Each structure stands twice: as structure tokens, then as C-alpha cells.
Amino acid sequence: MTASASERLASRTILLFALVLVITPLVYLVGLSFKAPEGIFSNPIVPFSWPLDLTNYRSVLQQMDVPKFFLNSLIYAGGVTLGQLILAIPAAFAFSYYDFRFKNLLMSIVLISLIVPFVVTYVPNYLLLARWGLLNSLAGMIIPMLGISVGFGIFLLRQHFQTFPQEVFDAARIDGANSWQVLWRVLVPSSLAPIVSVAIYVFIITWNRFIWPLLVGGGDPASYTMTVAVDIYYANPESGANWGNLMAASVVSTLPSLLLYIALRKQILRTFIEGAVKG
Amino acid sequence: MTAHPSLAHRVKQLSVAQMLAGVGNRLTPYLYLAPALFFIGLFVLWPVARAFYNSLYDGNLLFPYREYVGPERYVDLLTNERFHQILIQSAYYLVLMLAGAFALPILLAIVTLNVTEREIGIFQSVFFLPTVIAANIAVSVWIWFYNPTGGLFNTVLKAFGAEPVVWLRDKDLVIPAVALVAIWKQFGFHYLIALAGLKSVPKDLTEAAAVDGANNRTITRRVILPLFGPTALFLLVITLIQGLEFTFVPIEVLTGGGPAGASSNLIYSIYQEGFRTFRVGLASAQSVVLIVLFGGLAYVQYRMLERNVQYDR
């Protein structure tokens, strides 16, 4: 499709304007984190000051146990990702290669689990964790999340598994492989790309979760994730004029998902689109 | 003669083994599904059932079933003026979300069709940035933007000689202020979906129209947009269903529902009753209202997901 030169220019201008609006908060987020504490109020409109000042990062590292909370986030996001794959891969396999009674009904259950609003499940799940003594533990944070988000992995992987030729599957069966072997030795090794995409997607979403880890792990610093710690330590910055600290802690906590995004942008955008249902 | 019984015996044995194998084969898909469905059942479906049950009782997080209230709970809730206010505020949020997270992304995606592929790559990557950052982290800079003394917005206002505004403590401004943050966070994702929908229109259709002498605007309006219908419907439904969820973290971080409940909505209220005032029964009853109100939309979304599932094979 070819647009006229004036249409092209107008479109570009509109999009550039939108781009500036979208990126401005992020520029200030990063900029303020590198400003000396006294500089934040003296000239609020200019986001950056030169030279970059590391005071905020130093005080964040002193005030909160960043390595510990970082590790907690890693265990939480890694645990959910791994558990989700272990549950979703066989399920997606069953939906792609077998015909069985109640197949449609069971698929509906998976789809419905994608639609249920999170607040509806949080109170009952919290009560369940309390009964099991799993509050303020990473296990308590991970286990219910497997049920809440596994539908997504099943949904996405199923679409990829179905593109895998049924003949290869049948040939392996004729050669004497049972379905378990076909799954792990044939299908999974040849579907690594989509599996990794789903893993990255789940990891980012889980790393970024805030309310659930706050509810389950917010009672004890031993189970704070990074997002929770930033909120508990700095979310009320007006009291201590801790703006710079809040921004520095925010930057640190967002680095993993941001770096993954920068490194694997195309793949991540594609997975997000697939997850949103191909229009 | 002696061989016959043993042969018959062996034949019988074989068929039993085959039968067992047959049963085993028929069980196989269920075995693969069982673990995932167990987790979904326990942590998603069961909680939904619990919400209905819990709503009939009065109690707190420690003792959710202290006292049976029964259906009267719903009479109380539905005649409660504060709850009406929450429903009105929810509708207001949704209207703003429709403008910013449904109409705006589609309009910008249409405009994007006029620029080069390389530029499209840049725009969608940058627009998407707020989506890959944790919600409370992304919102944190807005606490400072809206801060009445020394925050960015009031500093700019002051530079133009205007009076400072208490953005988040003004009950008329607080919902647009919070919704703006939610839109900023979600915009890129919806833009991405809209753009993917527009670009999935087959090239030969637009080229054929161009050969027939149609200009750009006509092609967009007559060829692309009609085929864009399903994507638009999908975006509409998810904006309506998830619109209140998008505003949840901005509310929690920026206002806590205040001032005096003026920025709360149905989703935030469920959370607040459950985890702040510990009225589990009330939170559950509001969950049921949420399920009933959005059930129809959820059904539309479900049908779209289902159709997508059936397309594949």
C-alpha cells in the first residue's frame, strides 16, 4: 500500500508524538534514579543531570537485601515457569494428538480458566494456603499460580504442537516408541523454539506480578520478591523524599524482564500476539 | 487334542492383554491431562465455587464461616448506596479505558499502515515497553508526576503560572488520573494486537484494489477495516473484561481507592473487602456480582477462544 507524501508525514508526526508520550515516564524513571537526592526538587523538569549520580543505587543496596529479594523473584518466576511447562506440555500433547471422550469439555475448562478474573480466586486461594501453612513462603506463591496460569501454556503450546506432522508421530509409534517417548524424544526436542517462547513469556509475566506475591509473601521479608520489596520499602516516598531511591529500586527490579525484552523483542512480541488469540 | 485347550488359553490370554492395552491406550490422554486439570480445578474452578458459597456467610480471613447470612447478603449489597457508587465508578473507568485502550490503539494502528516496515518495528517496540515492566514499578514514576508539591505536573503548571492541582486527592480528577496510567501501561499491547490484525489482511487484496484505482483511504476503509472486524471485536471484549483489572495496580499504588473511595471500582473493592477489611463474605458476594455482570462478555470471549481452537485443525 502506498501513501501520499503528505499522508506519510502526518502519520509519522502523530506516531512520533505518541512515542514521546509513551516513553516520557520511562525517561524520568531512569533519569531520576541517577539524580543526586537534592537535585530532584531543584530542577524537576529536566529528567537527567550530568554527571550521573549513583547515591540512590548505593542507598537502595544498603537499605534492602537486593540479592535476597532478587533470588526470591528468580525462584518464584523460575518455579512457576518450570512447573507450568511440566504441566502444560503433556496436556497440550494430549489435546493435539488424541481423540477422546470429553475432549471438548476438558478444553472448555482450560479456556474458562483463562477468563476467570484474578480477584475472584485470590481470597479462596489465600484461605487454602493459610490452612496448609504456606503463607509467607515461595512454595505457597508458586503452587496456586500453576493452576491460575497453566491454561495459557496449554493454549499456546497446543497451537504449535498441532503444526507438527502427524506422520512423524505415527512413524515413531510403528518403530515401537510409546507415546511418552514420542512426547519427550520426538515432539519436545523439535518444538524447542515455541517452548522457549512460552517459557520467556511466563517468566516475564510472573517476574512482574505484584499483588499475588504481596498477598502471599508480604508478611515476611524472607519471602519478598523484588516487586513487593520496592512497594514495601519505597512506595510511600512522600514521607522521606525518597524519590530517587524509589526510582533506583524500580530500575533494578525491572532489569531482568527489560533485558529479556530488549534481547528477544521479536519473539516476545510474537508470543504476546499468539497468546492474545490470532485475530 | 491337548494342544487345543492351551491354544485357546493362549488366545484368551492374548485378548486380555490386548484389552488391557486398549484400555491403557484409551486412558493415556487422560493421564497426560490429569496433572494440569487437577491444578486448574483446585486453584481456579474450586475458588469460583467457593466464592458463591462464602458469599452466604459472614466472617473474616481467619474464620470465614462465623455466621450464616444467606441470600439476604445480596439484598443488602444491591441496595447499598456505596456499592451503587462503586458500580458507577466502574462504568466510568470502563468508558475511559474504551477510549484509551480500545479506540486509540486501533486509530494509531491504522495510521501506522502509512509508514515503513522499519519504522513500524520501532514504534511497536517502544509502545510495548510499559507492558513488559511490572505494573507497580511502572506506576512508581507516576506517584512523582502527580505529587502535589514538586511533582512534574505541578511544576509544569507553575511554570505557566497556573495553580497547583491535587491530582489524586480531587474526587473529580482522580479516576481520569488513575485511568491515564492504566491506559499508558496497556496501550502498547492493544496496539500490537490491532496492528497484527490490520496486517493480516492479505496483500493481494489491497494490491488488487490499488490496481483498480482505489486510493489509500478507500483501501483502508473498504478493504482492510471490514476484514478487521473480528480483531476489533476481540479487543473490545478484552478491554471491557480486563479494563478494571488494568486499573487495579494503579489504584493500589497511587490512591488506595481514595479519596474516600472515589477511585475504587468493583475489582478493587473485592480486594479491599477481602484483604484490607477482611470481610470475606462481602468480598465473595461482590465477586459473584462481577461474574454475573461480566458473564455475558466472558462468554463472547470464550466463544472466540473456542473458535480459534477449532480453526487450527
Protein topology:
The complex is a heterodimer of chains A (279) and B (313).
Chain A: H1 5-33, H2 39-42, H3 55-63, H4 66-97, H5 103-115, H6 118-132, H7 138-161, H8 166-174, H9 179-190, H10 192-208, H11 211-217, H12 226-234, H13 243-263, H14 265-275
Helix pairs in contact in A: 1-13, 3-13, 4-7, 4-10, 5-7, 7-10, 8-9, 10-13, 10-14, 12-13
Chain B: H1 3-54, E1 57-58, E2 67-68, H2 72-78, H3 81-112, H4 117-128, H5 135-146, H6 152-159, H7 174-199, H8 203-211, H9 216-246, H10 248-254, H11 266-275, H12 280-311
Antiparallel strand pairs in B: 1-2
Helix pairs in contact in B: 1-12, 3-7, 3-9, 4-7, 5-10, 7-9, 7-10, 8-9, 9-12, 11-12
Can you tag this structure with a few keywords?
heterodimer; A: 279 residues; mainly alpha; MetI-like fold; B: 313 residues; two-stranded antiparallel ribbon; 12 helices; 2 strands; globular
Written overview of the protein:
- The complex is a heterodimer of chains A (279) and B (313).
- Chain A has 14 helices and no strands.
- Chain A is mainly alpha-helical.
- Chain A has 2 domains: 5-53, no CATH class; 65-227 and 246-275, Orthogonal Bundle (MetI-like fold), CATH 1.10.3720.10.
- Helices cover 76% and strands 1% of the residues of chain B.
- The longest helix of chain B is centred in the first third of the chain and has 52 residues, at 3-54.
- In chain B, 42% of the residues are buried.
- In chain B, helix 1 crosses helix 12 (280-311) and helix 7 (174-199) runs antiparallel to helix 10 (248-254).
- With 313 residues, chain B is mainly alpha-helical.
- Chain B has a single domain (80-311), classed as MetI-like (MetI-like fold, Orthogonal Bundle), CATH 1.10.3720.10.
- The interface between A and B is large, with 108 and 107 residues.
